[in-house]
């Protein structure tokens, strides 16, 4: 009788261990969910605290860049730097009368035409 109960306990225990929920294939790997962007934090390069330019959008009438997770247009401020120019592969800032060019990470530049409403 004791052996029968022990066998049932082992059988139920092993079934419970194997009954884990399957992983969702649409979720990003754990390494990506711990990134500063996913956590909503400012993204910075390790080079002297320069802001990270993660995207640049260029249209026929306007340009903007994603800097530190925020959309910025020419003339706007990011921390104590002014956005002077948004180029195809970089953003030009002015800080304390010095011009600083920050390159786009992974060179992701999108160019859209007038038909797309951009």
Automatic annotation (TrEMBL):
Signal peptide residue numbers: 1-19
Lineage top rank: taxon: Bacteria
Keywords from the named record: Signal
Region of interest: Disordered: 21-46
Protein name (record): MSHA biogenesis protein MshK
Organism field: Lacimicrobium alkaliphilum
Organism taxonomic ancestry: Bacteria, Pseudomonadati, Pseudomonadota, Gammaproteobacteria, Alteromonadales
């Amino acid at each position: 009788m004791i052996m029968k109960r022990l066998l049932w306990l082992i059988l139920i225990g092993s079934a419970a261990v194997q009954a884990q929920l399957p992983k969702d294939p649409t979720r990003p790997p754990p390494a990506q969910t711990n990134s500063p962007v996913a956590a909503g934090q400012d993204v910075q390069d390790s080079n002297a605290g320069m802001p990270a330019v993660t995207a640049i959008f260029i249209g026929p009438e306007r340009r903007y860049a994603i800097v530190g997770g925020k959309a910025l247009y020419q003339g706007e401020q990011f921390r104590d730097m002014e956005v002077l120019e948004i180029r195809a592969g970089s953003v030009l800032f002015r800080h304390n009368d010095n011009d600083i060019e920050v390159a786009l990470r992974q060179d992701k530049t999108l160019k859209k035409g007038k038909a797309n409403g951009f």
